[in-house]
Amino acid sequence: MNQHVHHPARTRRLVRLVAGLLALGLVAAACGDDDDDATTPATGETTAPSGDTTAATTAGPGDTTTSGDSTESTEPPPDATTTVPAPVGDPEEVDGFDGETITVGAVLDQTGPLAFVGTDLLVGAQTYWDFVNEELGGIAGKYKVEIKVADSKNEAPVAVQAYQQIKGDVVMFTNILGTPVTKAMAEFLVEDNILAIPGSLAGEWVRNPNFLPYSAPYEIEMINGVEFWQTNLEGAGQTACTFAQNDSYGESGLTGLEFAAEKYGFEFAADTTYNSGDTDFTAQVTELADAGCEVVFSVSTPREQTGLMTGARSLGFEPVFIGTLPSFLSLLAGGDNGAAFANFYLVGDGGEFGDPEIPGMKNFLDRVEKYGDGAAPSTFLLTGYTATLAAHAALEKAVALGDLSHEGLVNAVQQLGEVDFEGLAGNYTYGPPDERVPPIESAIFRFDPAKTDRNLLALQEVVESPFAKEYVFAG
């Protein structure tokens, strides 16, 4: 799939440049894993507490719902004074909000090895905000949203510097790229009590009050990947192995795999790792082949996964590969590399890319055509777009509560409830960190070179392991 190429003229339209970063060598620029009901964006719903007999009603972005015990009278007792809550006024001006415009932050690779990802993520996010600004009038119908972006270069220390430079100019961070970068920023987000959408599906963000995660975590992806292998690929009794990036991203997926192996009653015959940027995978291929691996579960990124599989095929080693969402990029899968992907399965979320029967997908395609400045729809554009659905819901809730401060955004998410991702990802129930419920279904896709939508992945089925609900996220 062709990736969108970013142009300077377009950059000036998409974002406001980050002031003061030149001394750090940081660049501001224009970040995958989102209806005609176009006026109904992501919603935050508050459901009735258990035991209440009045069902909660569906609320729009930022709306709250109420429920009551039917055994209690709605009339005040005699001589009681009834207090009517005052309506919440406009939010006060705070960091990132000047009374008219809400500025959100993004820390993305714009000039490093993942710049092709960071650029598309940002275009996807900007596409969604353009829709909100132009067609909905902004947050709450009146506050336009702008993005301030800083270049992480895909290096954790640089990302932290970028964060420190712009944190006082934004109400929250809506796009971050990469698990190591997100992990490096996490302690500062907690210290400053700022909300952020992690650029990572690691399960450690589920219970963190300063994060607004979305989609099924990597741990769940791998648990469901094992379920698919066992039930659909007759995996019971086969030799299983792993291939994982040697960092916190890899550790997240491996944690899910270890949990699944214990539950399904098998052991991995070989566990191989690599460092981001590696290009030679001869040692890993040799170890996996010598162990007789029939399936390799990959917690990887596209270039390294492609290198592993092309190297394996050149040596006549062709097991089944089952990878996490970040392991595939169609740009690298076609052409001469296509044969190496013949036995590749991806564990992701939502339906097939480009399927107009999915309400959110139709919205995405229509909006990219309208607001994307000629960008070609891609999976990374879709990821940036989907993450912004969560940001939209959080901002609507914060405005409804009359507080766009850093603390106000964190508090808003604790009152948010369920957010509808329009079929682009599973719905996510927010709230107090220990009550959050991430989606636990996964969509399994298989490489299909005959597909014409440039994504080259065909949906196999939606899977939910019977053990997925048993997995406990640390908090």
Broad CATH class of the largest domain: Alpha Beta
Strand order of the largest sheet: 6-5-7-8-9-12-13
Roughly what fraction of the amino acids lie in strands? 5-15%
Whole-angstrom Rg: 23 Å
Largest sheet: 7 strands, mixed
Please identify, by name, the CATH architecture of the largest domain.
3-Layer(aba) Sandwich
Distance between the termini: 38 Å
**Mean pLDDT, rounded to whole units?**
84
CATH homologous superfamily descriptor of the largest domain: Response regulator
Helical content stands at 25-40%
Question: Brief description of this entry?
Answer:
The chain has 475 residues and is of the alpha/beta class.
Tell me what you see in this structure.
The chain has helices at residues 8-14, 115-135, 156-166, 179-192, 218-232, 248-264, 282-290, 302-314, 330-333, 359-371, 379-400, 406-413; strands at 44-45, 101-108, 144-151, 173-176, 240-245, 268-274, 295-299, 320-323, 344-348, 418-419, 428-429, 442-447, 457-463. The chain has 12 helices and 13 strands. The strands form 3 sheets. Strands 6-5-7-8-9-12-13 form a 7-stranded mixed β-sheet, with helices on both faces. The protein has 475 residues and is of the alpha/beta class. The radius of gyration is 23 Å and the shape is globular. Helix content is 32%, strand content 14%.
Highlighted features:
Rossmann fold, alpha/beta, 3-stranded antiparallel beta sheet, 7-stranded mixed beta sheet, 2 domains
